[in-house]
Amino acid sequence: MNDPRQALIHASRQFYQLGWMAGTAGNLSAKMPDNSFWITASGKQKGKLVAEDFVRISLTGEVLENPSPQNKPSAETSIHQAIYSLFPEANACYHVHSVEAKLVSNFIDHEQLPLPPIEMLKGLGIWEENPKVYMPVFENYLEVPRIAEAIIQRFKQTTPDVPALLIRNHGVTVWASSPEATENHVELAEYIFRYIVAARQAGLNFQH
Ligand SMILES: CSC[C@@H](O)[C@@H](O)C(=O)COP(=O)(O)O
Ligand SMILES: [Zn+2]
């Protein structure tokens, strides 16, 4: 995979238009062949990113390339680092802030969100009949490295059912082997969140 910034700019514009990256919310990253990754610089308006709005970081967190001196890496870079260190097959990692993701994170008070047994789960790698799978949920600490550390500690013990995690009252983070697959994963995760909100409004209950 060569410079992924155009794919990140495209995804960001899509997510902005869908209301999932309102203002400066969310951050996107994708790896280069040398395992470094381009990540959105902090505080950029996500509807109009350009190639200079990214910083290239090593897997250990050093800034390797910064096209614009005032750029700082995303405040949530440590979460992307955690995902790349836990899942070497991940080549992109996207984090967005939808209304529905925040709502569903309040439907449970524990660490796992039960996912509805719907066909769309196949897109997240679940090929079972009536699957009983969960999305991991993490607390939204003010210090982002604390969230990253919680992710590392939990996922070192237990592999998540799906390549996605939810931060309570914050948003979803997904990963996959390419920017295109990661964009699909965001769309599927957000579809599932909308379904959960609609199911609740309709009085349906699918707790496992
Ligand atoms: C709109 S504020 C959101 C931020 O606090 C954060 O959660 C976020 O997703 C974007 O942070 P950023 O540093 O621009 O990557
Ligand atoms: Zn965020």
UniProtKB/TrEMBL annotation:
Reactions that this protein is recorded to catalyse: 5-(methylsulfanyl)-D-ribulose 1-phosphate = 5-methylsulfanyl-2,3-dioxopentyl phosphate + H2O
GTP-binding keyword on record: no
The keyword Chloroplast belongs to this UniProt entry's keyword annotation: no
Binding site for Zn(2+): H95, H97
Pfam family membership, one: Aldolase_II
GO terms for MF: methylthioribulose 1-phosphate dehydratase activity
Name of the protein: Methylthioribulose-1-phosphate dehydratase
E.C. code: 4.2.1.109
Cofactor(s) the protein needs: Zn(2+)
Name of the encoding gene: mtnB
Family: Belongs to the aldolase class II family. MtnB subfamily.
Residues of the Class II aldolase/adducin N-terminal domain: 6-197
Pathway(s) annotated for this protein in UniProt: Amino-acid biosynthesis; L-methionine biosynthesis via salvage pathway; L-methionine from S-methyl-5-thio-alpha-D-ribose 1-phosphate: step 2/6
Cofactor binding notes: Binds 1 zinc ion per subunit.
Assigned keywords, A-Z: Amino-acid biosynthesis, Lyase, Metal-binding, Methionine biosynthesis, Zinc
Function: Catalyzes the dehydration of methylthioribulose-1-phosphate (MTRu-1-P) into 2,3-diketo-5-methylthiopentyl-1-phosphate (DK-MTP-1-P).
